[in-house]
Amino acid sequence: MAQAETGTSKDAAAEVDQYYWKQTRENLLTESGVRMFQIALKHMGEPYNTAREEIDAEYGRLSPRLLARGGSKRHGGIFNNYISLFEELGLMYRKREEETEILHLTPAGEQAALLLKNMPNYLRVIPYFLIELLSRYRFKNPQNKNEKNANLAKEIEEGDIFPYWSLYRIMRSLGDSISKDELARFVFRIKRMSEIDDVIRVIRRYRERQKAGVSSDELDREFGERLHGAIAQPKYIMGRAGYQAGVIALENGIYTLKREFIPFIDTLLENEPVFEEIDEETWMREYGKPLLASEEVLLPPLFSEIESATEVSVLPDDNLILKQVNLLIREDLVSGILLIGPPGTGKTWYARQIALKLVEADLSRVREVQFHPSYQYEDFVEGYVPDGKGGFKLVNRHLLEMATKCLQDDRIHVLVIDELSRTDPARVMGEALTYMDTSMRGRRFFLPSNRPATIPPNLLFIATMNPEDRSVDEIDNAMDRRWGKVSLDPDPAIVAQFLNKNGFQRSGIERVIRFFNSVQQECSLGHAYFRGIKNIDSLRRLWDSQLQYLFKKAFRYDPEKIVELQARWSEMLSDIENENA
């Protein structure tokens, strides 16, 4: 009988004959998925057949396009398809009670509802939630019934694969990427956890053969044919694994894990899930158990006071930089202090010494952090960390920890941020940047996690910044009005101070200062470079180990200037040696 007469397509026949990773097509992380989940939440505890009709009706009213098409009654309605997704994700389940199926929400479903309801940008958090949830999902479970495909159901019954955990493991082992072809040819055929290492080795060999220019026919003969048709399409599996949530990127047929999620995934991969036979009730209880967000996790943890320690600042009270900082803080009410200057002008040293002065030498009231190019909001304000139980919890980072301390102790506290210009402060500080303004101190605002926060007036900020860094323009735009700036310029008097203290020959100090001053017209040379100079030999080492590289970088497009500076330096050394002869 012809296919048209039987209604059996080639793809459908393939699905009957072959084992493959079968998943529902729907995805929670789409506009439709989120809308359906939120509508269904209103019907928990109701009989399933009644609830699904009401859910479909409300979904239709909120979906003009669907309504224009006359709605959808295929396969028992729209929610009848989505309930399979929500059961696969461990968010909802149906349970027979007194001859009636009742719709229930799991603890994990309650958490998803909390995130979707309260997070102003839930997409920043829910990918982590789903990654962990999916990492414990397995095909062989009482909810995966496959009534329409007895052959596939039998094949799944013989396996023990945790598909998403395995997918993350394979991608991490293969340079964080996997192609559509490799998914259809190898990954979607894996039935047992014991096969994963072999599949990784085979894919590596497959890539080598591809790179060697082996033809498709030869690859088919050597590695077997790939899956074809609908069952070979990766979009549903990969969409669920994180493509639609921003965890995975797709370009030219290659899926790649995004770098920011890799530490989180690696922590999950440390413990391979163990398969054990369980009934339907146990499955939903275990798979639907709480993950990240419990009420206690969302509340700010109290700061554990460290043992008090002291360190006295060596900065004299009449120091001009200290005086300027005090005026900006106490008279001009600036939100923070930016110590600006080229490398070698003592910015970091001044920041620490000023902080010690402001807290009266109490180290428990000072926190020092250093920004770098990969520094994130999650490192500075709030972020997720492993909870020691295979899950993750939301915790305060440096800014919120210091804010918590300030609320418990009304004395001055200082947060020192070294190398502020190494990253984008607006990205790292987020909404908190606005509330650092003195006019906004003490005002309640909400974090992306929906937790309330405040920046107390007794929290001071001191940051260091190199004006030559690439992000300086962005920093100026974000902070010009809020932060007071103190310039730390190269100072010949400090160079002389260093040399005198180190016993450098007096006749040579003047020549070093002369070179130092002459260079400033062309390139900022910080006085700190001369901190350890004791004699002519240490001057030579200073050029060989530091200054020549500083000048080569500054004048990389002007090689003649580098030659000129080296000649002037050599002349200075020669004059000092002749005077000493």
Q: In words, what does this structure look like?
A:
There is one protein chain. The chain is α/β, with parallel strands linked by helices and 581 residues long. It has three domains: 9-295, no CATH class; 309-487, Rossmann fold (3-Layer(aba) Sandwich); 492-580, no CATH class. It contains 28 helices and 14 strands. The strands form five sheets. Strands 7-10-13-6-14 form a five-stranded parallel β-sheet. Strands 3-5-4 form a three-stranded antiparallel β-sheet. The chain has a two-stranded antiparallel sheet with strand order 1-2. A hairpin with a 5-residue loop joins strand 11 (445-446) and strand 12. Helix 3 (31-40) crosses helix 4 (48-61) and helix 10 (163-173) crosses helix 15. The protein is elongated, with a radius of gyration of 32 Å. Mean pLDDT is 78; it is low at 1-16, 118-124 and 292-308.
